[in-house]
Amino acid sequence: MINHVDEAYLKLCQYILDEGNAKGDRTGTGTWSTFGYQMRFDLQEGFPLLTTKKTAFRLIATELLWFLKGDTNVKTLIQQRNHIWDEWAFEKWVTSDEYEGPNMDHFGNRAAKDEQFAVIYKEQMSIFQEKILSDDDFAAKYGDLGPVYGKQWRSWPDAEGGTIDQIKNVIHSIKNNPNSRRHIVSAWNPAEVDDMALPPCHTLFQFYVADGKLSCQLYQRSADVFLGVPFNIASYALLTHLIAKECDLEVGEFIHTLGDAHIYKNHLDQVNEQLSREHRALPTLHLNEEKTSIFDYEMEDLKIEGYDPHPSIKAPIAV
């Protein structure tokens, strides 16, 4: 069986392997990279959760709800057993003057290559996570990631000392002026980029209404194709579903436009394994019909049915 989501994603992977440029990067890992690539997904044909490897919908959904609540502290995510942002907060701690444990320089790469160090790293990460959960002062200092997505989406600082709620504004705009070409939310705030644990990779998205359907296009400046992009596809598809429901629209397309799309050199074996797998049928998303506001959803209001993917494929994260 071929589904258009896995087909488009694996085509991107193969294109980078065949045509990509060898480039260095901030993490020192090295990548194969291409610049400027676009994929289109028809959200009427199923929810775009990859089937050629298991992709964790719970992690995607809890992260998106965290963004939508304007939260920027990993404590909320750790409480929900979501650890996808832990490394960036952990790095803040282990590079501080207060950290007195073993040297954690380049912990991501070292843990992937050195089993003995990986044990030490996991011990320190467990200590960090426990301190985040048990010590409010520690969590406030080391759990906060700075003015990342949730802050920019819900509390962009304005010139008068107030804030702009971009998500509320874009929903109001879609409802009241659907033909507008200004249904835009930006996470890239030049005045605050240097204060973020990680400058936003998915930088700007725009909505488009036609024929009673809501479509979304994302511009992503930097795309970790193996680990990040499957999450980004599903996250923005989910966001489109949530906003479409609130605006009494059907879903249309999700268009994913990539700037620097790269495969890390320590992900090549994993990518080739995924390329060898057969596609399966896409799952279906079900939303709690009783919820009317995008800001009221909790994880239990979001259900995926019919998801039968191949097993997950582990790979180290570059920090």
TrEMBL record:
Residues noted as binding dUMP in the record, renumbered to the chain: 26, 181-182, 221-224, 232, 262-264
Top enzyme category: transferase
Cellular compartment(s): Cytoplasm
PROSITE patterns the record matches: THYMIDYLATE_SYNTHASE
Binding of (6R)-5,10-methylene-5,6,7,8-tetrahydrofolate, residues: 224, 318
Signal peptide positions (record): none
Enzyme Commission number(s) of this protein: 2.1.1.45
Residue numbers annotated as active site: 201
Glycosyltransferase in keyword set: no
Single Gene Ontology BP annotation: dTTP biosynthetic process
Catalytic activity entry: dUMP + (6R)-5,10-methylene-5,6,7,8-tetrahydrofolate = 7,8-dihydrofolate + dTMP
Gene3D superfamilies assigned to the protein according to its UniProt record, in alphabetical order: Thymidylate synthase/dCMP hydroxymethylase domain (3.30.572.10)
Pathway: Pyrimidine metabolism; dTTP biosynthesis
Swiss-Prot/TrEMBL keywords: Cytoplasm, Methyltransferase, Nucleotide biosynthesis, Transferase
A GO MF term: thymidylate synthase activity
A GO CC term attached to the entry: cytosol
Residues in Thymidylate synthase/dCMP hydroxymethylase domain copies: 8-319
Domain of life: Bacteria
Family according to the record: Belongs to the thymidylate synthase family. Bacterial-type ThyA subfamily.
Functional note: Catalyzes the reductive methylation of 2'-deoxyuridine-5'-monophosphate (dUMP) to 2'-deoxythymidine-5'-monophosphate (dTMP) while utilizing 5,10-methylenetetrahydrofolate (mTHF) as the methyl donor and reductant in the reaction, yielding dihydrofolate (DHF) as a by-product. This enzymatic reaction provides an intracellular de novo source of dTMP, an essential precursor for DNA biosynthesis.
Oligomer and partners: Homodimer.
Entry protein name: Thymidylate synthase
Species assigned in the record: Kurthia zopfii
Gene label: thyA
